[in-house]
């Protein structure tokens, strides 16, 4: 797109591609951002969410990566899952296939147990795992994503062994945890919201305690240098013209500061951690390195 054309941007509908089905956390975030993005693009264009579910999000991520880099196709990005799939299959994109605009959500993983579990602290889990015999089971929404990586990284850091049990999605994993079918889980914090009477969160895999659960310690403060979560943001195809990129990033930055938007995100249980441009790309590269390391040391397929 020439700078002359970019000066008119946006002049038509912007499509925001979501690689997951309607109603999930990523879809809800996308629709929330889209409504406020329209506002901060001065109402000059509509932003329409297009769901392209399938293959663990790969269909949607691929569509964004292969789209024309003109600012009229954006996409949601899920880290580390989106880049993890580039190791366990022949994906037609990688971290270089996108223009990294802005991350909005940093939803940390948790170590969570049934509310009636005998485990009341992280140390209880470590002690039980160190007693030998059958390994403790940890429920995961899937292999090759943040739940899986959190469990693997924690087991390595604490020198314990866990039996990882993948399910077909977070809701099934949560049901298994609540029902005591597995000993614990490493689900994202937002997926525990509303289930406080059935789940006990022992720790969060974040650098600092999160505001929504300020009484829950971090794994790091308990002595284990592990951070993992579900990072959700907005990307465009690589090669986006600088002037279009600047328009979008300025509008997305305004969205991230909008009090109404922040209130909506809080009600959704989605911790906002805004990172734009180079900082977002650095986050993506770090998540890619984690996925690559785990794939090379303990491949999941």
UniProtKB/TrEMBL annotation:
Which InterPro entries did the record assign? Answer: BUG (IPR005064), Bug_dom1 (IPR042100)
UniProt cross-references to PANTHER family, sorted A to Z? BLR1237 PROTEIN (PTHR42928:SF5), TRICARBOXYLATE-BINDING PROTEIN (PTHR42928)
Q: What is this protein called?
A: Tripartite tricarboxylate transporter substrate binding protein
The record's family statement is: Belongs to the UPF0065 (bug) family.
Organism listed in the record: Halomonas dongshanensis
A single Pfam family it belongs to is TctC
